């Protein structure tokens, strides 16, 4: 049976968005279970009764599907960090601690590990860094800017500092994904990140 998306009162755009979201949902589950190489386009379209033509209407190829899933997962991670910050004390250093805890917790999720940390960097190459910055850099800049305003960090160029912090935390997450002892690797990486911030904090004081 061929899949026919529900068309709402707002018309074709809703149907298009629904179709795309449906494809990404299947792709996400399949990439997480079988990996990128083990997933065919048929694996993505057949479970929901679509055709490859429906997929090609939204994506050029399988790599573009992976890129969209990657971006979606990164946005969800940023949302998770945002929720943690909403519950955190207003003190800037406590907010940073809450953000780091939420980041490492979310980046330990199995689907995130398989797709974002293991599969996508090999397939998408340099695109992942660009996506990471587009999705997450503003939040990191906000956190670091709050620390600078509070005198907890030295006055440094904000964007380069945010990029370095984003890259460093991402590298720890990648090490966690490759480790046989995730908890130990996370603790060790967190110690390094904390030490970097403590050094900057001492410089500010």
Q: What features would you highlight for this structure?
A:
205 residues; mainly alpha; elongated
Q: Give the SSE string.
A: HHHHHHHHH
Helix/sheet category: mainly alpha
Q: Nearest-angstrom radius of gyration?
A: 20 Å
* Shape type: elongated
Proportion of strand residues: under 5%
- The end-to-end span amounts to 67 Å
Biggest sheet, in brief?
none
Helix % is over 70%
What is the typical, i.e. mean, pLDDT?
91
| Total beta-strand segments | 0
Catalogue the unreliable spans.
1-8
- Count every helix, treating DSSP H or I runs of 4 or more residues as helices: 9
Question: Can you give a write-up of this model?
Answer:
With 205 residues, the chain is mainly alpha-helical. It contains nine helices and no strands. 25% of the residues are buried.
């Amino acid at each position: 049976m061929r899949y026919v998306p529900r068309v709402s009162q707002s018309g074709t755009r809703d149907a298009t968005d629904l179709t795309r979201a449906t494809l990404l949902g299947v792709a996400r589950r399949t990439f997480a279970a079988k990996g990128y190489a083990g997933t065919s386009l048929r694996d993505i379209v057949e479970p929901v009764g679509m055709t490859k033509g429906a997929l090609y209407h939204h994506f050029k190829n399988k790599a573009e599907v992976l890129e969209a899933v990657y971006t979606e997962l990164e946005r969800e991670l940023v949302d998770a960090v945002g929720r943690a910050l909403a519950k955190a004390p207003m003190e800037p250093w406590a907010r940073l601690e809450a953000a780091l805890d939420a980041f490492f917790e979310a980046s330990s999720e199995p689907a995130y590990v398989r797709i974002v940390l293991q599969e996508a960097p090999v397939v998408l190459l340099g695109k992942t860094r660009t996506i990471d910055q587009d999705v997450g850099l503003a939040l990191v800049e906000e956190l670091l800017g709050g620390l600078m305003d509070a005198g907890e960090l030295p006055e440094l160029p904000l964007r380069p500092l945010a990029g370095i912090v984003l890259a460093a935390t991402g590298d720890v997450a990648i090490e966690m994904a490759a480790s046989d002892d995730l908890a130990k690797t996370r603790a060790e990486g967190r110690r390094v990140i904390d030490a970097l911030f403590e050094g900057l904090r001492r410089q500010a004081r």
